[in-house]
Amino acid sequence: MTIQLQRARLRLADRQPLELTDSHGARLRGVGGAAWITVDNDSRDWVLEPGDEFVVASSERVLVTALGAGGATLDLCTRPRRVARSALAAIRHAFDRLASRRQTPPRAAAAATA
To answer: Tens of pLDDT along 69-97?
Structure first.
């Protein structure tokens, strides 16, 4: 299942895995309990406890697993995709170009007033 969101509080039961794909730049913050984080093709693992933060530094798959009988609570914050920001920038540029054309008088009108 694919769920797209920018902020969420996640509650994981003991040993319940959470899989994050294409999550480069996402930030996980420990709220309660402890969680084990592993990233595909990275030899390191991390344990996230309350107050700790982990920022996903690659586009590899990330597995987050709650540790202990109490499970874990995490805040997940993702940043908007670059494609969306690029599209927004393109739209703004197009509007700016249209606005500047409206402010510039047509050539014929400029020549008649000269």
So the answer is: 889 999 999 865 554 556 666 677 676 76
Instruction: Domains for the chain: give ranges and CATH numbers.
Output: 7-77 (2.60.120.10)
Closest by CA position to 76, among listed 42, 41, 37: 37
Taking the complete model, does pTM exceed 0.70, yes or no?
no
Positions of E strands within the chain: 7-12, 17-20, 27-39, 45-48, 53-55, 62-77
| 14-32 tens-digit pLDDT | 878 899 988 899 999 999 9
Element containing residue 50 per DSSP (H, E): none
C-alpha angle with apex 6: 13 to 91, nearest 5 degrees?
Answer: 160
| Helix runs in the chain, H state only | 82-103, 107-113
The angle formed by the CA atoms of residues 44, 45 and 46, to the nearest 5 degrees, is 130
